[in-house]
Each structure stands twice: as C-alpha cells, then as structure tokens.
Amino acid sequence: MANGAVRRRWRGAAAVIGSRRWAAVASDTGLAALFIAAIAVQAAALADSWGLASWRLGGPAAAVVCGLALTRRRNPAWTAATGLAVAAATIAVAHLAGLPAEPGPAMVLGLMVLTGTAVRVLPAAQAGAVAAAGLVLAVARLAADPPISASGASSVAVSYAGAWLAAVAAGRWLRMLDVRAANTADRVRREERLELARELHDIVAHHITGMVIQAQAAQIVARKDPANAAEPLAGIETAGTEALAAMRRVVGLLRDTADAAPASPGPERLDELVERFSARGPRATLQASGGEDWPPEVTSTVYRIVREALTNVRRHAPQARSVAVTVAEEADGVTVRVDDDAPPSPARTHHRAGYGLVGMRERVETLGGVLDAGPRPGGGWSVRAVLPLRESR
Description:
Layout: H1 2-48, H2 58-70, H3 76-97, H4 105-121, H5 124-144, H6 153-224, H7 230-255, H8 270-280, E1 283-288, H9 296-316, E2 322-330, E3 333-340, H10 346-351, H11 355-366, E4 370-375, E5 381-387
Parallel strand pairs: 1-2
Antiparallel strand pairs: 2-3, 3-5, 4-5
C-alpha cells in the first residue's frame, strides 16, 4: 500500500506539472508566432523602403532579443539584462551608421516581454533595476532624435517609450495579483489550521470515549470473569494506538505550510449535503458505499472534498444541469468522484483550481492519497480523490 500511495502521489504531481508545462509551451508557441510575424512584417516593410540590406544589423538583433524572451523563465534577470544590452548596442550602432531607426516592432515586442516578466517575478531591487534600465534606454532614444525626422525615428522612439510603460504597468499589475494570491493563501491556511485544531479535539475525543467505554467493560468483566479480561484490554490498546496515529496525521497537517481549505466536515451526512445542493442548484445524485468503519480523518476528508467540489460547481459552473457524486470503498481505498456536465468556459478553467481544492489536494496527500481536478474529455469538470484506508487505520 505504501508503494501504491507513492505511485499515486507521483501521478498526481506529474499531472499538475504536465498541465503547467503544456500551458507554458502553448504560451511560448503563441509568442514565437507573434515574433516571427513581427520580424516578417518589418523585413517586408524595409525591403520596400530602405532595402533589406539595411536591416543586416537590426534583423539578427531582433531575433536575438525575441529568442531571449522565449527563454525568459530560466533566468529572468539575465535574459532581461542581455536583451536590454543588445537593444542598446543596436540602437547606438544604427544611429551612428545611419541605418533604419531601432528598436523596430519585433525588438520592441521582445523587450516588452522581457521587461514585464522581470518586473513581475524578480525581487524588488532587481525588478526596479530592469525597469530603470529600460527607462534610461527610452529617454536616451528620445533625446537622440530631433522632434521631427524624415526617417520616422522620432515615432520609433515614442513607440518604444510607450511600450516600456505598458510592459512595466502590466508586470506591476501581475505582481500585485501574485502578492494578493499569496496573501489569500496564507489567510486560507490559517483558517484551515484553526479548523484542524478543532478536528484534532474531535478525533481524540472520539477515540478516548471508546477507550473509556472499553475500560468500563473491562472492569465489569474482570469482576465477573477475570480470565476473559484480556480481550477488553486488547481493545483499549488498539484504540489507543489508533488515537496516536490519528493525532500524528492531524498534527502533521497543522505543521504543514502548504495551502489548505477553510472547511469543516460538520455533523451532516453526505446524502443531506447532496440534497441541500440539489435544492438550490443543479440536480445532484449520490452513489455511496462503505464508511461504517472508516477512520474519522478519512470520513471528514471525504465530506470536505465533496463539499468543496459542489461549492465550485455552484460558483463557477452555473450552466451545469447535473452533478454526479460517487463515494466507494475499493481495493485501493476510498474513491471520491464529483462530475458535472457544464460546458467549458475560460472563466471556469481559470477559477476552478481555487485555494479550496489546492488545500484538499495537500490534505489528501498527507493521508497517503491523491486528488486530481480538471476538465472531462466529453465536457464538464471532474474532481477525483483516492484515500488509502490501510495507511489511515
């Protein structure tokens, strides 16, 4: 079971990493197409005016800057600094040699990506240095040209200054969104830890109550039949061992620094939760089996997963007509699945991987399981979790 749990964790991590990698590949592919189009358009424009030979310096330089923009994730500081240095050198040489004004549209696009990324992800000092370097380059470019130029150099300088301002503004805005998301994650984590502390009390009380009852039974048995008193004592030992294991797991969750969801299992049963959801939203059905002898932390986690998934359907998939909730005890453990049939939408894809499911994934993995959430092949959204029972008992 331990090896199976490790494999499931690796599959879950691989799915998340794979989705992020494909998103990055798609983004870079779109940028590459945009860069190629910009280079081609600029080359065609220069071929009809100055002649293509006049771009023997600016063309390769634009290609280098765009290439650096496509590799910016590896080292944002180095790629931004190198791109600005290449741009500065190209601008200076083109101005002295009487070549077409630089930076052209292709290079400007590459510099925008490099500057915006640096402002977003780098530490404040480095981000400020990159932004300042771009500003110095823009001011120098403006100062180098007369107000009116037949070659159009002044308009090129103004265009670059506007592009620099837009890149810094976009990077700063995205940086603020990232900070806000991190602050929200911290708040969510604190709220969940308070819930886990209360749950720790409930779990310990559950086990200790059983131990007290068995101890009372052992006293009665010991008075009537001392020879059979060992069986209740063995039950007390088992309950104590389970209590310690449950405490270790919940305390492990409290010590973890990853995201968690502010949810509480509450006294309601799953069928009541599904009925309450159906009364105010899409029709939901429940198929459930097992649960009689599951550890409390598994039962509460199953409830939280279902509640979080249904909450996300209500918030982000109002077009859904039906939701299917399946909870089953299988050979690998407890399988929880929540599927809806809402049509895909950009807002849904952006919001459905919220803090609640991020926290639930970490909680499930702490218990030895795995949780995945994403679009279904035939349409709709699916949340699926597997919780091993042997590791929890």
